[in-house]
From TrEMBL:
CDD domains: ABC_NrtD_SsuB_transporters (cd03293). The gene is tauB. Gene3D superfamilies: P-loop containing nucleotide triphosphate hydrolases. This is Taurine ABC transporter ATP-binding protein TauB. InterPro entries: AAA+_ATPase, ABC_transporter-like_ATP-bd, ABC_transporter-like_CS, ABC_transporter_ATP-bind, P-loop_NTPase. Residues 10-246 form the ABC transporter domain. Pfam families: ABC_tran. It comes from Desulfotignum phosphitoxidans DSM 13687. Signal peptide: none annotated. GO terms for molecular function: ATP binding; ATP hydrolysis activity.
C-alpha cells in the first residue's frame, strides 16, 4: 500500500471481518464479511460505495465508526487507530434514529448537550443547521409529526451540528420517495460543497452514486474487497444536462457492468 499522504483522512488497512453465524461457533459457520480490504479516503472527499447486497458495506461503515472491531487489520482516522466509537464520525442510517420523545430542536441539540456546550451556543448552532436543512418553523415538532424526508433532514442537521470530521451515511435516502430523495440529494451536495466534510455514503443506486460522489467504489461479492474504483469527473451542478451527457452514460455503464458481475457472483456465494 502507498504511504499515507498528509491529506489521508481514513485509511482502511488490510481489514478482515469474520462473523460467527447464528448457528454457533462450529467450523464452517463463519461468515467472512470483509477480506483483506484496503482503501483510503482523502480529506474532503465524497466517497460512495456500491455493491451487491451482503457484500459488507454496512460492516465496513460500522468498523470505521468504531461500532465493531475488525478481526484483522486496522483502520486509521487522522493517522490514529480506531479502537472504539469515534465521536469524530457522524453516522446517518436509513431509519432516522431520532429520539421520538424529543422535539426537532432537542434532537439536533442532543450531541452538543452531551458535550456540555452552553445552552445559548447550542441553541444558536442548532438553529443554524435546522435552517440549513430547510426545517425552520418545525423546531418544536416531534418526529412522529414529520414526513420521512423531514426526519432524515433532522438526522443530517443533528450530525452537522456536532461538527464531525467524517460523515458516514448508510443508505440514508433509500426509504424515501423519488422526489424527496432528489431534494435531499441536492441539499447534501450543497452542504458538501459548503462544509467539505469527508463523506462515505452507501447506496444501491448508481444514479445516486453519480450525482453525489467525487469517487465511487464498487465492492466485490462477499467477502468484500474493492472491485473497481472510479473517479467521478462529472461537473457540478449535476443537473439534467449532466445526467443526459455521454460521460454520464459512459460512467453509468461502467459501474453497472461491474456491479452486475459482482451481483452474479454473490448469488453464487448465496447458493453455496
Ligand atoms: N452481526 C452479524 N452476525 C453474523 N453475520 C453478519 C452480521 N452482520 C453482518 N453479517 C453478514 O456479513 C455479510 C455482510 O453484511 P453487510 O450488512 O455488511 O452487507 P451489506 O453490503 O451492507 O448488505 P446490504 O446492501 O444488503 O445492506 C452478510 O453476509 C451478513 O449476513
Amino acid at each position: 500500500m502507498d504511504p499515507l499522504t498528509q491529506d489521508t483522512k481514513i485509511a482502511v488497512q488490510n481489514v478482515t471481518k469474520i462473523f460467527q453465524s447464528k448457528q454457533g461457533k462450529k467450523q464452517g459457520h463463519e461468515v467472512v464479511a470483509l477480506k483483506d480490504l484496503s482503501l483510503e479516503v482523502k480529506d474532503g472527499e465524497f466517497l460512495v460505495i456500491v455493491g451487491a447486497s451482503g457484500c459488507g458495506k454496512t460492516t465496513l461503515l460500522n468498523l470505521v465508526a468504531g461500532f465493531d472491531k475488525s478481526s484483522d487489520g486496522q483502520i486509521l482516522l487522522d493517522g490514529n487507530p480506531v479502537t472504539g466509537i469515534t465521536p469524530e464520525c457522524g453516522m446517518i442510517f436509513q431509519q432516522y434514529a431520532l429520539f421520538p420523545w424529543k422535539t426537532v430542536q432537542e434532537n439536533v441539540e442532543f450531541g452538543m448537550k452531551m458535550k456540555r456546550m452552553p445552552r445559548k451556543d447550542r441553541k444558536a448552532r442548532a438553529d443554524r443547521f435546522i435552517d440549513i436543512v430547510g426545517l425552520k418553523g418545525f423546531e418544536r415538532s416531534y418526529p412522529h409529526h414529520l414526513s420521512g424526508g423531514m426526519k432524515q433532514r433532522v438526522s443530517i442537521a443533528r450530525s452537522l451540528a456536532n461538527d464531525p470530521k467524517v460523515m458516514l451515511l448508510d443508505e440514508p435516502f433509500a426509504a424515501l420517495d423519488a422526489m424527496t430523495r432528489q431534494v435531499l440529494q441536492e441539499q447534501l451536495v450543497r452542504i458538501y460543497e459548503k462544509h467539505r466534510k469527508t463523506i462515505i455514503f452507501i447506496t444501491h443506486s448508481i444514479d445516486e452514486a453519480l450525482l453525489l460522489s467525487s469517487r465511487i467504489m464498487v465492492m466485490t461479492a462477499r467477502p468484500g474487497r474493492i472491485a473497481q474504483e472510479i473517479i467521478n469527473d462529472l461537473p457540478y451542478p449535476r443537473n439534467a444536462e449532466v445526467q443526459l451527457s455521454s460521460r454520464y452514460m459512459e460512467l453509468k455503464r461502467m459501474i453497472w457492468d461491474s456491479v452486475q458481475a459482482e451481483v452474479m457472483k454473490s448469488m453464487e456465494v448465496e447458493a453455496d
